[in-house]
Amino acid sequence: MATKKHSKLKSYLENNFTEFSETGSLDRLKALYSDFSKLWILNKYGYDSHVSYWRRIILDCSQQGYLRSSDYAIVIDQDTIAEQFQKPLIGKPLALDCVIVRTIE
Questions:
Q1: How far apart are CA 90 and CA 12, in angstroms?
Q2: pLDDT tens digits, residue range 48-78?
Q3: Neighbours of 100 (CB within 10 A)
Q4: Cα 79 to Cα 53: distance, rounded to the nearest angstrom
Q5: Maximum C-alpha span of the chain
Q6: What is the pLDDT of the chain when averaged over all its residues?
Q7: Cβ(80)–Cβ(96) below 8 Å
Q8: Mean pLDDT calculated for residue range 5-24
Q9: Which of 99, 1, 19, 92 is nearest to 51 (CA)?
Q10: Rounded to an integer, what distance in angstroms lies between the CA atom of residue 25 and that of residue 52?
Q11: For residue 62, what pLDDT is reported?
Q12: How far apart, in Å, do the first and last CA atoms of the chain sit?
C-alpha cells in the first residue's frame, strides 16, 4: 500500500511525465527501470539519455517537494530513493545509484 506521500509523487509523475502516464510506453518505462549501469560500455548515448532523464526526474521532484525531508530542502537518500519510484509490475528503478553518482560529480 502506497503512503500518502508516495501517492502524491505517483500522481505528479503521471501528470507531468509521459513515461509515467497510463498512456505512456511501458517498454520505455521498463528500460528506465532496468539496470542500465553497464550500458555506458555498449551504448554511451543510451546510458547518458537514461542518466539525464532520471536526473531531471529526481531534481524536479525534489524541487516540487516530493523528495524533501523535514530538515533539508534537497535530500537524496541513495538507500531509499528507488523505493519512492517503485511501480507495480515493474518494481524499483535499478540504476539510480549511478544517476546520483553522475549528478554529484
A1: 18
A2: 999 999 999 988 988 888 876 666 556 667 7
A3: 18
A4: 20
A5: 41
A6: 84
A7: no
A8: 87
A9: 99
A10: 18
A11: 85
A12: 35
